[in-house]
Amino acid sequence: MKERIKSCINNLKHLPGVYLMHDKDDKIIYIGKAKDLYKRVSQYFLRPQVGKVAKMAFEAEYFETIITNNEKEALILEMNLIQTHYPKFNILLKDGSHYPYIAIRKTGYPYLQIKRNTKDKNYDYFGPFPRSSSAYETIDLLNKIFPLRKCKNIPSTACLYYHLGQCLAPCINDISKEKEDEMREQVKSFMRGNNADVKRDITNKMMEASEKMDYETAKDYKTVLDAINHINIQQNVETNDKKDRDIFAFSTREGYLSLAVLLFRRGTLLDKKVYIVEEFDNNEEQVADLILQFYQNVPYPQEVVINNETVVDLLSDLIDPNIYSVSKGKIHDLILTAKQNANNALDEYFLSSKLDSDKLALLEELGNILNIDTPLRIELFDNSHLQGSSPVGAAVVFINGEPAKKLYRKYHIEHDEARDDLKSMEEVVYRRYKRMKDEGQTLPDLILVDGGLNQIKAASIALAKADVSINLFGLVKNNKHQTAGLMDINGNVYDIENKNIFFMLTRMQDEVHRFAITFHQSLRNKSMKSSILDDIKGLGAKRKELINKAYPDINLLKEATIEELSQLLPKEVAEALYMKLRY
Predict the structure, then answer these.
(1) Which of 441, 456, 448 is nearest to 491 (CA)?
(2) How far apart are CA 275 and CA 283, in angstroms?
């Protein structure tokens, strides 16, 4: 045992807190929490270890501790430190934003919104929806079924939705409070799964339209019915007590752990999520840590169920809802369903190419190929423009082989030569690392740029101006325009023969390209629409907002007829816009 480790162990206390393992280069390689720091930390070095735990203990040069008042404080501190330092031995769930809710205001004319938290007490909330697309599809369906307000800001004249019978137009009509409350309760009832009356009403309307040979309208009603039936199929697993409940189960195989969770809200299954990570340390403790991470982005339900008493004991004092395990009954059957999902996820994982099988091993091998320390944090850059218009730059970050989307950054190119990709690269790289250095942020271990030696030199000039030293390489393509190797500042090429490293780099390259292109397209779309809507007499800010709401895409706006535009705008303004769109 290393002498410095012995000294650190002698200073450990039987108190709760957080411990940080450091390697020989003073990098933090692992962060953990403990109810008893002495018992927890000393066992890494006083007991035999295997696998990744043994590797972490071997690499640890010393550790430091932060004592807290209780284990719950230690949990909060541990999560904050992990999200700051991203240690390589900490198993993290993939980065993601908070799950969305559908929110309906408690007063006034009903209007639906997507919200990422439930802090505003002026709304009733439904969710969370594990997939944003599900939330937006549900809002779209509700807006078709009920005459809800669609406009974010109430316009001064009735819009297209009023003429289509999809809104009662509170902008021009006096809607009674009783009618507003009635509609709000109908929406809330539908969201609670009570849609039989709505289905019956829409079915009758569909039949009436069909009898009148209005087949287009009948088809629209059929589409709405199909959407409702789709929701019913997704939510066909219910519990009778109508509680908010999350049900967890885990499975392990060949060094991997699969954690599945079924999300029930008001007794209805909204969705499932499955996470697969490498095993590290004790399974029960790792599962407890993953569940705690899960609730960093998802609000607690009323109950949490996992059929493992050890995990229940570990979490009982750390999370707010009631947590328990069961051995029989319907809830136990649901645990078995979650367990089956965890097993199936492992089956699919082992049948796949296993690109993600051991990211640390791939990164270590990449470091050996390039003769640098293991690049745990890699940043990539890309620029995008169309004939010099709306030029942008983008930076993406991968930590321990995973995209860290909270750290992605977008840049508006400020120099005058928008077509000059080399100037754009130099500007973006300089701006990023000058700011990171000034603010004392953690610099990456490796920068990758796309475009060959000239791009590498442009980035190198920027790093020198920012006065930072970071390993810099360029992605080299073959004659099929595929990533084939890496090039250094001197033009030396390092071939990538390991297929999994090749796929990992390709995935990173695709991600930065996607991020840059998406940003550029959104700016170009806004710019095109803005230029079209400008300089039209009678088309002020409120009417522009109305057009943007009704036609979110420029191509949809170009297809609009004068008759359609006239439902949103005065006839002469609609005609002027129509002419500008086409000529």
Answers:
(1) 456
(2) 14
Supply the DSSP string of 544-572, one letter for each residue: HHHHHHH--SHHHHHH--HHHHHTTS-HH
| Residue bearing tokens 């002020």 | 540
The tokens describing 456, both together, are: 């590498």
- HSE of 321, CA atoms in CB hemisphere, 13 A: 19
- For residue 78, what are the contacts with CB-CB under 8 A and spacing of at least 6? 18, 31, 32, 33
- Residue 401 predicted with pLDDT over 60: yes
- Who's near 9: CB < 8 A, 6+ residues apart? 41, 42, 45, 46
> What architecture does CATH give domain 245-351?
2-Layer Sandwich (3.30)
SS3 state at 111: strand
Burial class (CB in 10 A: 0-12, 13-18, 19+), 1: exposed
- pLDDT tens digit sequence for 3-59: 999 999 999 999 999 999 999 999 999 999 999 999 999 999 998 887 788 899 999
**CA 384 – CA 513 distance, rounded (Å):** 8
CATH homologous superfamily of 360-524 equals UvrC, RNAse H endonuclease domain (3.30.420.340)
What residues contact residue 447 under an 8 Å CB cut-off, 6+ apart?
378, 379, 380, 381, 429, 459, 463, 470, 471, 472, 473
What's the CATH number of domain 3-85, 3.40.1160.10, 3.40.1440.10, 3.40.50.720, 1.20.1440.230? 3.40.1440.10
Contacts of 458 (CB under 8 A, 6+ apart): 422, 423, 425, 426, 429, 449
Q: Which two tokens stand for residue 178?
A: 């009783």
Residue 233 pLDDT > 70: no
Token digits of residue 245: 């409940």
**Cut 0.70: pTM above it:** no
